[in-house]
Each structure stands twice: as C-alpha cells, then as structure tokens.
TrEMBL record:
It comes from Streptomyces plumbiresistens. Its EC number is 2.6.1.9. InterPro entries: Aminotrans_II_pyridoxalP_BS (IPR001917), Aminotransferase_I/II_large (IPR004839), HisP_aminotrans (IPR005861), PyrdxlP-dep_Trfase (IPR015424), PyrdxlP-dep_Trfase_major (IPR015421), PyrdxlP-dep_Trfase_small (IPR015422). Keywords: Amino-acid biosynthesis, Aminotransferase, Histidine biosynthesis, Pyridoxal phosphate, Transferase. Residues 13-39 are annotated as: Disordered. The keyword Ion transport does not apply. This is Histidinol-phosphate aminotransferase. Homodimer. Its cofactor is pyridoxal 5'-phosphate. The gene is hisC. It catalyses: L-histidinol phosphate + 2-oxoglutarate = 3-(imidazol-4-yl)-2-oxopropyl phosphate + L-glutamate. Pathway: Amino-acid biosynthesis; L-histidine biosynthesis; L-histidine from 5-phospho-alpha-D-ribose 1-diphosphate: step 7/9.
Length: 368
C-alpha cells in the first residue's frame, strides 16, 4: 500500500473525509454547479485586460490590504440595488463567499463553539465549520423545504449555537426565506446566546423578492453574505463579500490573512462592477429561463420545489442517483446533492435548457 492521508498525523475530524466538489465532467451540457452560462461580454473582457495591465505594473508591491476602492464600489452596488444605504465601513470582501464564511466562522465559531444550519442547505457551511473546529448542528426543515420556524426556534433555544446560517434563496432547494422568519430566528438567536446570524444571499439577484440587507440596520449580529460568482457571472474570479455593522468588518480583520485579496482580483472585480447593468440584464434572462424550467418540468409530470434561485430542484425519484446517471447518459450533467428523491438543475442558456428538457421528457416517456 502506498503512503496516504491516513498515514499522516492529520486532525481526527478530517480522517476518512473527502474534499467537497461536484464532478467536473467533460459533457456537452453542464448544468450542475449553479454557474452563470453566459461568458462575460467582450467590452468587459477588454476592460478587465486594461485594469489588470495597470495592476500588473505594480505587482512588485502588495495589494491594497483593505481593498478600499473595491469595497466602496460594492457598497454602492448594494445601496443601488437594495435601497438601503451602506458604505465602505459596512462591507468586507474575500476570495469567494466561501472565504467570507470561513472568516466569519474563524471569528465567531471555533473550538468549543457551534454553528447551526437548516438542512438540506449549502453543505459547505457544515464543512467550513468542521475545518474551523466549529461544532455543526443540523437543524430541521419542513417536508416542502421551507424552514419549520417553531422547530428551528426550539433547536436554537436548546443548542444555543454561536452562529446561525440562513440561506435565502436556499441551495439546493431554491427556497426563499421570508423576512419575518429571518427576524424571528434572529430574535431566537439573541435570546439564546447572543449569536451571529449569517444570511447567505449567494443567489439573491435571482429572487422574486428583495434582499434582506436592510435588516442589518440596528442588528449588529446580522451579516448578509453575497458573491460575484452567480449574478455577475464571475465564478472564476473568486470574489465574495459581506454587509454588516462596521464592528463585524473590524472583527473579521482579526482573522483575515494580510493581503488576502490579490491586486489582480481587485482589478478584475472593479472592472466587472463597471458593467453591472449589462450583467444584471443576463440575470433577467436567467430568471425567465428558470421559470420556464419550472413550468416545463411540471408539465412533463415532475415535481418541482418553488425556486427563487438560478436552479431548480426536481423529482421525485425512487433512486435519484440512477436518474442523474440516465440524464448524464443523454449528455446533460445535473447535480445529485444527496437529497433523497431529488435532483437539481442549473438554469443555462435556452439551448442548454432545451437539451435538458428533451432528456427528462424522454425519460418520462420511457417510464410510462
Ligand atoms: N453560498 C451558497 C449558498 C452557494 O451555493 C455557494 C456556491 N455554490 C457559495 C455560497 C459560495 O460561492 P463562492 O465561494 O463562489 O462565492
């Protein structure tokens, strides 16, 4: 036997575990990782090249450690789109919202502390908790994947977690969480501990409803986390950010690595923000495609979970993984998130969605 991970003195909680990640398979239609299917428009590509060229001239120097220009522009974007005034002091940025979440757990979680999420939800919350030595508590959901408020409040009161994750719209189900529910969870979390409530809004631009950003007013323990990976079509950029009380922004700086955001990342994100209007135009197209996927899946006889995101959870299947394989055999990669009976498809271009719909219609025909 060759030398492997288990022969190394790795931490006990990492033993026997696998790294997170969807299969990156080379198939014609990839609708499995909630990416935006539209490549960045050419004028933006040119602007990125320009800004990166400028940044390259100073790569002998460390980048702006506080990413002031970028955070200022992100604050403007948030203010413009939510109607709630936020500024530089309210905003923090990192390499993807995964890193934002990691920094939050390093700051507010850690050994001897716990975090709770209402599952099924974004599994990285639990995995980052593990990576930061934070205990993980799996909270409940209703059958229809909405949050069971009474059960959630009870779980918070009993476990007194240090961090509460609320993902809206939720991944992988697409379920939006109403503001009243978030407010009730916030109150429950404050009564129990007090603890931090992290509202993960990675998909909020695709929602029928509004961002919960205005709720940070007067609630210093509420954090809204966002990303440029989805609506901005820039998953490859790795840029996530948060909005919260300035004290939260001060606190996460205790754990961030110095110069964590490269000058290239900052330059690229700034260029993308200059093209916000065009990029949000694609979001409108994707929302229409998401709604088309929902109605076509229902018309074909599948069950669908109401979606506010750029993906749709559909089922139900006795053996979801077998169906995942059958769809893959037809050249379309969707996601099996391990939710029994359900699969998830990301809204792609109209042509990609047609290919997916053809595949699932064929499957239905073969079954009947
Ligand atoms: N939150 C949720 C709910 C997600 O689904 C994802 C990505 N799939 C992320 C955060 C992380 O995204 P990123 O690190 O690319 O910003």
């Amino acid at each position: 036997m060759s030398f492997g991970i288990d022969d190394l003195p790795v931490r006990d909680e990492l033993r026997g575990k696998s790294p997170y990640g969807a299969p990156q398979l080379d198939v014609p239609v990839r609708l499995n990782t909630n990416e935006n299917p539209y490549p960045l428009p050419e004028p933006l590509v040119e602007r990125i090249a320009e800004r990166v060229r400028e940044a390259a001239r100073n790569l002998n120097r460390y980048p702006d450690r506080d990413a002031v220009e970028l955070r200022t522009r992100l604050a403007e974007y948030l203010t413009d789109t939510s109607g709630h005034q936020v500024g530089l002091a309210n905003v923090w940025a990192a390499n993807g919202s995964n890193e934002v979440i990691q920094q939050l757990l390093q700051t507010f979680g850690g050994p001897g502390r716990t975090a709770i999420g209402f599952e099924p939800s974004y599994s990285m919350h639990g995995l980052i908790a593990r990576g930061t030595g934070t205990g993980w508590i799996s909270g409940p959901r209703n059958e229809d994947f909405t949050i069971d408020l009474a059960a959630a409040e009870k779980a918070i009161a009993e476990n007194r977690p240090d961090v509460v994750f609320v993902t809206t719209p939720n991944n992988p189900t697409g379920t939006a969480v109403p503001p009243e529910t978030v407010l009730a969870l916030y109150e429950a979390a404050q009564a129990a501990k007090p603890s931090m409530v992290v509202v993960d809004e990675a998909y909020i631009e695709f929602s029928h409803g509004d961002s919960l950003l205005p709720l940070i007013e007067g609630r210093p323990n509420l954090v809204v986390s966002r990303t440029m990976s989805k609506a901005f079509g820039a998953a490859g950029l790795r840029l996530g950010y948060l909005a919260a009380h300035p004290a939260v922004v001060d606190a996460v700086q205790l754990v961030r690595l110095p110069y964590h955001l490269s000058a290239i990342t900052q330059a690229t994100a700034l260029a993308a923000l200059e093209h916000t209007k065009t990029l949000l135009g694609y979001v409108e197209q994707l929302k229409a495609e998401r709604d088309r996927l929902v109605s076509e899946l229902l018309a074909t006889g599948y069950e669908v979970t109401a979606s506010d995101a750029n993906f749709v959870q559909f089922g139900r299947f006795d053996d979801a993984h077998a169906v995942w394989q059958q769809i893959l055999d037809r050249g379309v990669l969707v996601r099996d998130n391990g939710v029994p009976g359900w699969l998830r498809v990301t809204a792609g271009t109209p042509e990609e969605n047609d290919a997916f719909l053809d595949a699932v219609r064929q499957l239905k025909k073969e079954q009947s």
